[in-house]
Amino acid sequence: MLVLGIETSCDETAAAVVDGDGRVRANLVLSQLDEHRPYGGVVPEIAARSHLETLDGLVAGAMEQAGVGFGDLDGVAATGGPGLIGGVMVGVMTGKAIAFARGLPFLAINHLEGHALTARLTDGCDFPYLLLLVSGGHCQLVAVEGVGRYRLYGTTVDDAVGEAFDKTAKLLGLGYPGGPEVERAAAAATDPDRFALPRPMKGRNNCDFSFSGLKTAVRKTVERLIDPLPPADVADLAAAFQTAVADVLADRCSRAMARFQSAYGPGGTLVVAGGVAANSTVRAVLENAAGAAEFGFAAPPPDLCTDNAVMIAWAGVERLRRGGVDGWEFKPRPRWPLDETAALD
Ligand code: KG4
Ligand code: ZN
């Protein structure tokens, strides 16, 4: 089985080819970072135009890298949402056009499902497992029972964790996107315990998250310090923020692992996915928390944690195997929760 995947829901244009054994035959990601950087965040209109200009060439490049033609494919999978609607439309229309022209099945993939199923490709995780999805737009704990079967345990009541990294980076005068910049700055900390930051939601008897208070605490700390911030202060504050985030994530995961165990029995695996899962402190702290709960731990390699089309192609493989094809009438969905019964995004 051979599936072409297309991802255009945010600021990465990506195309990939994956086979039924989970072999990545092609993986191309074109970042639009330079186009958005002057604005300090993703500009939807710029993103959509850029996807439109580059996607055809990227798909051709992926097919060439894989050494296959459209006639060799068994299906075409494109992100159908959630995301910035202009970009999702570009990907869905391109995917449908290729599938229609070649008489192939078309699969509209939930971007979150792409992140959720990646660990099956990279680590061979069996269902059910507990997923912590931490990205620029999402922060959720989900029990993954099967393809298309998700149970939402908790979500953020305000900012997504990646958003908190990005905003903190801005407050510290670091570049965009903020996550990798904060991680780099934190690595240079000489006194990581100098600043005490809050742990929102820690100890609460649910699996929800909150990050706006943490961001405010960073802002208030910055306001007390000299302007411009000396590099040592930036490094120590970045480290304090990163530690606070990791601490809160571990606490929320511990709560969720207990809930998961009472639902599915002993054992289990904690899977972490999404852009923030590329952070090595976050990964290490979560691996520890998983160990303490006697859970296995899996985190895809960083380039498959951030947005990519391999995860979309792979979700396509998983869906296609189960006969989950979409019709031409599929409409791009700006909002598309994993657990539709929980009605939260
Ligand atoms: O999954 P992703 O690539 O896109 C979304 O679907 O949102 O996640 C992007 C987010 C951004 O907020 C970025 O700052 C964050 O992931 N991120 C990181 C790191 N790399 C990316 N956050 C912390 N540490 C990192 N190394
Ligand atoms: Zn994502």
Description:
By secondary structure, the chain is α/β, with parallel strands linked by helices. It contains eleven helices and ten strands. The strands form two sheets. Strands 3-2-1-4-5 form a five-stranded mixed sheet, with helices on both faces. A five-stranded mixed sheet has the order 8-7-6-9-10, with helices on both faces. Helix 5 (161-171) crosses helix 6 and helix 6 (178-187) packs across helix 8 (231-264). It is globular and about 60 Å long. The structure holds 5'-O-[(R)-(carboxyoxy)(hydroxy)phosphoryl]adenosine and zinc ion.
Quick overview of this protein structure:
The protein is built from eleven helices and ten strands. It is of the alpha/beta class. It folds into two domains: 2-116 and 304-344, ATPase, nucleotide binding domain (Nucleotidyltransferase, domain 5, 2-Layer Sandwich), CATH 3.30.420; 127-299, ATPase, nucleotide binding domain (Nucleotidyltransferase, domain 5, 2-Layer Sandwich), CATH 3.30.420.40.
List the helices and strands and how they pair.
Layout: E1 2-7, E2 12-19, E3 24-31, H1 33-36, H2 44-66, E4 75-81, H3 85-102, E5 106-110, H4 111-123, E6 129-134, E7 139-146, E8 149-155, H5 161-171, H6 178-187, H7 212-224, H8 231-264, E9 269-273, H9 280-292, E10 296-298, H10 302-305, H11 310-321
Parallel strand pairs: 1-4, 4-5, 6-9, 9-10
Antiparallel strand pairs: 1-2, 2-3, 6-7, 7-8
Helix pairs in contact: 2-3, 4-11, 5-6, 5-7, 5-8, 6-8, 8-9
The structure holds 5'-O-[(R)-(carboxyoxy)(hydroxy)phosphoryl]adenosine and zinc ion.
